[in-house]
């Protein structure tokens, strides 16, 4: 059985990388002042942040399921099955929409497996690499789907937000709370444990935020993931929003703290998360790998 791997641009995998890997990346639609753009096709990271910082009206949207269906149809001419790994259903309706489409269209029934394994950005990328490896070993789409679903809660992401401006703009903070937080120079540390983006801690300095995230990851590694770590099945990755220099420093600190664990990826955060948290963010994640 030949299995095609499909994901979306929230994984951080570019179109150029996708071509090298032999996978398909669906570009996520981004709305800017009423105009429609597609991540990594008609909108670069730099252009996105320029618009975001200029107070343009920026939001992300779902891909059109009919367009995705056309991609699936083309792939099924050369492949027997498809594994599709969209962003977490806890952060977007995309996964539910595509799952329903795959189940309701006769041509896709039993051939397209839409994975709802609660991943985004660097942990979503890890799922894609796991699926690729399994497909290369001849695993069926059902076997790949089962593994990704069985391990869906075996990841953690912690994110430091540099400014409260975009959380306020997106309605995740009241104006009063945002104003007080800005005055006190509060930098929230958020977490993604499966579905939702939630508050984890509040700090005032980048150094404190990094210390908080390292302690949080260390706790996860010593509790939830202790057995997987001992088996060498846990990897670390880092992400950022327009914060390249700081993320490289953070990478060194993470390596010093966890020298036994491989750091796989250092990527920009997906635009679907970035539009809510803005530039200057730092993130660290741990996840199981196949």
What's the number of helices?
12
How far apart the termini lie comes to 20 Å
The secondary-structure element order is: EHEEEHEHEHEHHEHHEEHHEHEHE
* Strand order in the largest sheet: 10-9-8-13-11-12
Q: Mind describing the biggest β-sheet?
A: 6 strands, mixed
Mean pLDDT: 90
Helix share, percent: 40-55%
Annotation, overall tally of beta strands: 13
Instruction: Give the quaternary arrangement of the chains.
Output: single chain
Gyration radius (Cα, Å) is: 19 Å
Which class do the helix and strand fractions yield? alpha/beta
Dominant shape: globular
Q: Which regions have little confidence, pLDDT < 50, spanning 5+ residues?
A: 171-184
What does this structure look like?
This protein has 290 residues and is of the alpha/beta class. Helices cover 42% and strands 23% of the residues. The chain is built from 12 helices and 13 strands. A 6-stranded mixed beta sheet has the order 10-9-8-13-11-12, sandwiched between helices. A hairpin with a 2-residue loop joins strand 3 and strand 4. Helix 5 (121-136) runs antiparallel to helix 6 (141-150). Mean pLDDT is 90; it is low at 171-184.
């Amino acid at each position: 059985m030949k299995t095609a791997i499909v994901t979306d641009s929230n994984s951080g995998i570019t179109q150029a990388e996708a071509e090298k890997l032999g996978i398909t990346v669906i570009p996520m639609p981004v709305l800017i002042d009423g105009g429609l753009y597609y991540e990594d096709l008609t909108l670069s990271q730099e252009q996105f942040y320029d618009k975001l910082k200029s107070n343009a009206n920026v939001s992300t949207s779902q891909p059109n399921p009919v367009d995705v269906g056309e991609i699936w149809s083309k792939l099924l001419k050369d492949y027997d099955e498809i594994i599709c790994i969209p962003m977490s259903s806890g952060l977007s309706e995309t996964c539910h929409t595509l799952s329903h489409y795959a189940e309701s269209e006769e041509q896709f029934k039993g051939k397209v497996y839409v994975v709802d394994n609660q991943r985004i950005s660097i942990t979503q990328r890890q799922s894609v690499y796991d699926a690729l490896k399994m497909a290369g070993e001849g695993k069926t789409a059902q076997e790949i789907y089962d593994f990704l679903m069985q391990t869906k809660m075996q990841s953690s992401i912690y994110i430091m937000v540099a400014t409260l401006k975009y959380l306020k703009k997106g309605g995740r903070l009241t104006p009063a709370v945002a104003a007080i937080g800005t005055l006190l120079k509060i930098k929230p540390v958020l977490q993604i444990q499966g579905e939702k983006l939630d508050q984890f801690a509040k700090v005032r300095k980048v150094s404190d935020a990094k210390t908080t995230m390292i302690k949080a990851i260390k706790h996860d590694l010593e509790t939830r993931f202790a057995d997987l770590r001992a088996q060498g099945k846990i990897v670390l990755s880092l992400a950022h929003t327009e914060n390249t220099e700081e993320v490289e420093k953070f990478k060194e600190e993470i390596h010093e703290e966890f020298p036994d664990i491989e750091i796989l990826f250092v990527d920009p955060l997906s635009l679907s998360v970035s539009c809510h948290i803005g530039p200057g963010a730092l993130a660290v994640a741990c996840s199981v790998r196949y």
